[in-house]
Amino acid sequence: MSSLRIEGVGKSFGELEVLRDLELAVEPGEFAVVIGPSGSGKSTLFNLVSGLDRPTTGRVLVEGEPAGVESGKVAYMPQKDLLFPWRTVLDNTALGLEAQGVGKKEARRRADALFADFGLDGFQKAYPSQLSGGMRQRAALLRTVVLERPVLLLDEPFGALDSLTRTEMQLWLAGMWQRHRWTVVLVTHDIREAVLLADTVHVLSPRPATIVDRVEVPLARPRGADDF
Ligand code: ADP
Ligand code: MG
Q1: C-alpha neighbours within 13 Å on the C-beta side of residue 220
Q2: Mutation test of ligand 1: which of 18, 35, 76 has the most ligand atoms closer than 8 Å to its C-beta?
């Protein structure tokens, strides 16, 4: 069964037709990148996959079930996934679990267990302002991954970083994916990011956006975590 199937999805906001007849399938363990220019409807698409919004036409299936916030199948890192500046990094990373009903102590224990893997060990009690931009993005990703949901949606996760840090973070994410084999859908307008990270690149047309090409990029895939 596909992790994600988007079947004939259209989305309009009043007169504005953003998505039209969009088709996409993502298999378990696949790193899919959807690429399109700003304003093409990438975040709109993620709102449909996460169940925050509903398509005007077509349907979205996650592991065979209609997408819905309550289904608990999708972990969504929104485009502006800001950490709360007045809470510690550990508190911030435990928030998502707490929001889904996990007790505070258990939520912190589970988040804390990932700190070393995310290169954040020792920063549990720090505040977000004490972290570098790359570390803040890793903390936001940790907050999403710790939910242990079958599908990870990453909305331009490195878009706000300077180009050197962005490259560093792209290599880091490629290494993490190599080890964990998450099922990921990442949207970006950065072609280099797409080629570096993706198993499959899905190209959006200008509005109304639909997927006009699907490219497999096996050669871009590093052969092992040691490559990093
Ligand atoms: P992207 O993420 O690719 O930059 P978005 O999905 O954020 O693009 O937006 C696509 C288009 O849909 C834009 O023109 C945006 O203004 C419009 N849009 C997004 N959300 C809404 C909404 N809730 N109501 C009206 N228009 C919206
Ligand atoms: Mg967007």
Answers
A1: 20
A2: 18
If one residue of 16, 43, 44, 80 were mutated to test the ligand 1 pocket, choosing by the most ligand atoms within 8 A of its CB, it would be: 44
- pLDDT tens, the chain, 228 aa long: 999 999 999 999 999 999 999 999 999 999 999 999 999 999 999 999 999 999 999 999 999 999 988 889 999 999 987 899 999 999 999 999 999 999 999 999 999 999 999 999 999 999 999 999 999 999 999 999 999 999 999 999 999 899 999 999 999 999 999 999 999 999 999 999 999 999 999 999 988 999 988 999 875 555 454 554
Q: What is the ipTM of this complex?
A: 0.98
Pocket of ligand 1, beta carbon within 6 A: 13, 16, 18, 36, 38-44
Task: Give the torsion through C-alpha atoms of 182, 71, 204, 179, to 10 deg.
Answer: 0
Query: What pTM did the predictor assign?
Result: 0.94
Q: Closest-lying ligand to the alpha carbon of 49?
A: 1
